[in-house]
Amino acid sequence: MPSQLLRDTDPQITAVEGIAVGHHTLRERPTGCTVVLAGGSAVGAVDVRGGAPGTRETDLLSPENTVDEVHAVVLAGGSAFGLDAAGGVMRFLAERKIGYATTAGPVPIVPAAIIFDLPIGGRPDVRPDAACGYEAARSAHRGRLEEGTIGAGAGATVGKLLGRERAMKGGVGSAALTTPDGLVVGALVVVNAVGSVIDPRSGRVVAGARTPDGRGLENPFDLVRRGVPPPGPARDHTTIGVVATNARLTKAQARKVAEMAHDGIARAVVPSHTPADGDALFVLATGRLGRDPHPGVVGSLAAEAVSDAILRAVRLARGVPGYPAVSDLR
């Protein structure tokens, strides 16, 4: 299928058995949160590459640390304030007695990452909180997901190398790949990058920094070669996401998959992993495949799913005031 075409039947992260996703978007301004439920528990890992991350529970996911299960991952807007959304997801799971077994009862393990979207919509006091996380978890389902300007992608923007006045709308997207022997690897990505988005197969610029007339797109490779620096303070930008697979992986193997999955960001976002980005990718390995595929195969598929999800995020986004979408430039 040509990469520029999008179909309602294209597989998403929910193609991984047990994975459920829910969005909640705030009404007061474009922001919100997105929750990925692990269908009980999964082996979790994370790799943080950006220089300005906003995260929670990432140390727990290090291979040398004890707890090896994750019950949900939260992606949210609102900068560091948005990390509160994870508390609502914990409450949702605790009510259902889902969590890491302790002598005092189950404790849900809910890592999280945020994007900086506070300038979007003129109400920086409006940001996702625990109630947002709870509502997103309550709405989670295993069917077709809405993508684009929703949930954690509601306030996402891309292409800020030349300033926000020439940026475009980002969003949230999802994709998945399945091999003939039943291995499934999916990704859900929130794209709020300082860089521009390109189609790695064609090299075509899809979304990003616009030309001075606002109707075309600058070539991000030319901007990089001119030495244009990423603008703005730390945490102004970021690409965050979740990779899920039915493969059975150890924590160390899942960490390697997370590392390889970042290749998908590097292929589709130029520049990526900058000091002003907080790029982070989580991995959830459910083990439902019942066998141990090579981690290198899983990681290669993860990178492909991530880049596909990034393209879907910007192509399916709807514009908001000051930030046109891809469809607005046609």
Give the number of DSSP strands: 14
Give the proportion of residues in helices: 10-25%
| Poorly predicted runs | none
**Order of SSEs:** EEEEHEHEEEEEEHEHEEH
Overall CATH architecture: 4-Layer Sandwich
Task: Tell me the β content.
Answer: 15-25%
Question: Care to describe what's here?
Answer:
- With 330 residues, the chain is an alpha+beta fold.
- The protein has a single domain (13-325), classed as L-amino peptidase D-ALA esterase/amidase (4-Layer Sandwich).
- Helix content is 20%, strand content 24%.
- The strands form 3 sheets. Strands 1, 2, 3, 4, 5, 8, 9, 12 and 14 form a 9-stranded mixed beta sheet that branches. It has a 3-stranded antiparallel beta sheet with strand order 11-10-13.
- Helix 1 crosses helix 2 (130-138).
Characteristics of this structure?
three-stranded antiparallel beta sheet; 5 helices; 24% strand; 330 residues; nine-stranded mixed beta sheet; alpha+beta; 14 strands; L-amino peptidase D-ALA esterase/amidase
Summarize the structure.
With 330 residues, the chain is an alpha+beta fold.
Please describe the topology of this protein.
Layout: E1 20-25, E2 32-48, E3 55-56, E4 70-76, H1 85-95, E5 112-114, H2 130-138, E6 157-158, E7 168-169, E8 171-178, E9 184-192, E10 196-198, E11 205-207, H3 220-225, E12 238-245, H4 251-268, E13 269-270, E14 280-285, H5 295-315
Parallel strand pairs: 4-5, 12-14
Antiparallel strand pairs: 1-2, 2-4, 2-14, 3-5, 6-7, 8-9, 9-12, 10-11, 10-13
